[in-house]
Known about the structure:
Layout: E1 3-11, E2 19-24, H1 33-43, E3 48-53, E4 58-62, E5 67-68, H2 72-82, E6 86-88, E7 93-99, E8 102-108, E9 116-119, H3 123-127, E10 138-145, E11 150-156, H4 170-180, E12 184-188, E13 192-198, E14 203-217
Parallel strand pairs: 2-3, 9-10, 11-12
Antiparallel strand pairs: 1-2, 1-14, 3-4, 4-5, 6-7, 7-8, 8-14, 10-11, 12-13, 13-14
Amino acid sequence: MTDxxxxxxxxxxxxxxxxxxxxxxxxxxxxGRSDRQALAAELGFSETxxxxxxERGAIDIYTPTLRLPFAGHPCVGTAWLLDVPELRTPAxxxxxxxxxxxxxxxxxxEWAPPRTLRRHATPAEVDALDVPPPGEWIYAWAWEDEAAGxxxxxxxxxxxxxxDEDEATGxxxxxxxxxxxxxxxxxxxxxSQILTAPQPHGWVEIGGRVFLERQxxxxxxxxxx
Length: 225
């Protein structure tokens, strides 16, 4: 049995929605990559984080099928949980800060995995999209209010791992912010909120609300936690 926390990251203004994240605070209980990958698959979250050094902010991130050098919503959530000034990921050092109800990180767009950023004419078009077949990782978006930087978005990982749609995805929001070159207020999924802002020298800041959903133990093998 393994202790882990379940967070919701990028919650809406009323505290609802957000993308679920599993965090194993004591990564030493599962030091091997194969064991971590198996647990991430068992838990079934879009990402699960293993904390290898809470004081230094050293973390290791997994989807149900692969290890990631960096991911946005896991970093935002884990930075909030550990309350540290930075996180150490395989991609690089991620700056972190808390500002009122928002947890912020600062990262580089080149750390984000490739995404297909697909613009649509209206938010209604984005809302009407069906989940595409496995293949491309698609971030579908449209302007809600271009002057105000407000965007409607949905994310389709296309990995075939049971995560047909991500409720809130930081890495894709970082890529979109770099492409558009401006601060964004993104409503994604069923009502999650992501805030971003480009920073000097190729950095992008991204933030959102984080809530601790529950603390739990892994279920016996073969059962969902």
